[in-house]
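batch job 7 of whatever, protein = M15 family metallopeptidase
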Amino acid sequence: MNRTIPRCLAVAAVAAACLYYALDTSGASPSAPRVVATATPSAKGLDPALQRALTRATAAARRDGITVRVTSGRRSKQYQQQLLDEAIVRYGSKRIARQYVNTPGRSTHVKGLAVDIGPTDAAYWMIQHGPEFGLCQIYANEVWHFERVTKPGGTCPPLKANAAGG
């Protein structure tokens, strides 16, 4: 398989994820910093510490003129399995699919410990500034996936190649 195909698919996934964001349903005033929730999966049910870090990062991004959207937050086990099943069909094998989609038992999205961020400029902003809030990119092949894995201002761990840990 051409090595650029997975990279192109990753970029396409960011673009597709951006299409899923919905209107903010938090009830916050337009001037209040907020995390824009998605319809499904949702920013609801996130770990409280992750939610606080994300809210602070979103406010800082807004000051820089960047709109942060949660394109995927907490997921049910069933939805995570659906994503994995779809990836197996798309990539032709579970081994390759696992590079992009974790099993329900291993997914930090299912545990409410991960968010996917869009649009692309927001994801790149988060890569650069997320560590100030304890938010780190986890996988080299997923510029949109962030977890709270360090203290604010701390150092992010080395990137894993992909969701399979490779």
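notes: The CA atoms of residues 9 and 160 lie 18 Å apart.
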